[in-house]
Amino acid sequence: MWLSSKMRPAPATADADLGVTTIAGDSVGVMTRGEVRTVPVYGPGGYVWMPESGGAVLVIKGGPGGEEQCVCGMKQPAPPEDMRPGEVLVYGPGGNSVYLKRDGTLVLRGEVCVEGALWINGTACSPCQCGEELV
């Protein structure tokens, strides 16, 4: 009848909101207008990020009624004063960072731990055996 032909499923919607993480990890709890748990975390390809509890994050809502949600990022801090367009700064807790500069310079801040082979200018580099007796 006429009424049944007018009843249609709700169209898919997309919305965004600022939230605060309540549970840390790769599947977080987030508080927007209410708390939602086991929200997946999305990020750019090749980058893994686990939000800390209490962080302000961007929550994308989609699907019918906006019930499907995901955390997709957070407000970035102010960039370094000398940072130029196209440069990338990846930072973590404790002040460590990887800074990819436009001129090809790679700036590492923090303790560096190399796991695997280390090559410098095409030559394999091995740890110094300084002070050790050779057998």
Structural overview:
The structure is a single chain. The termini are far apart. The protein is mainly beta and 135 residues long. It has one helix spanning 2-6; strands at residues 12-23, 27-31, 35-40, 56-64, 68-74, 88-91, 97-100, 106-109, 118-120, 123-125. Strand 2 and strand 3 (35-40) form a beta hairpin. It is built from one helix and ten strands, in the order H-E-E-E-E-E-E-E-E-E-E. The longest helix has 5 residues, at 2-6. 7% of the residues are buried. The protein has a five-stranded antiparallel sheet with strand order 3-2-1-4-5, with no helix packed on it. The protein has a three-stranded antiparallel sheet with strand order 6-7-8, with no helix packed on it.
Give the helices and strands, then pairings.
Blueprint: H1 2-6, E1 12-23, E2 27-31, E3 35-40, E4 56-64, E5 68-74, E6 88-91, E7 97-100, E8 106-109, E9 118-120, E10 123-125
Keywords:
single chain, 135 residues, mainly beta, 2 domains, 5-stranded antiparallel sheet, 3-stranded antiparallel sheet, 1 helix, 10 strands, elongated
Task: Characterize the main sheet.
Answer: 5 strands, antiparallel
Tell me, rounded to a whole number, the average pLDDT: 83
> Low-confidence parts lasting 5 or more residues at pLDDT below 50?
none
Could you state the order of secondary-structure elements as H and E? Answer: HEEEEEEEEEE
Question: How many distinct helices?
Answer: 1
Calculate Rg over CA atoms.
23 Å
What is the helix content?
Answer: under 10%
Structural classification: mainly beta
Shape: elongated
Terminal Cα span: 94 Å
Q: In what order do the strands lie side by side in the largest sheet? A: 3-2-1-4-5
How many β-strand runs? 10
What is the strand content? 35-45%
Taken together, the total number of domains comes to: 2
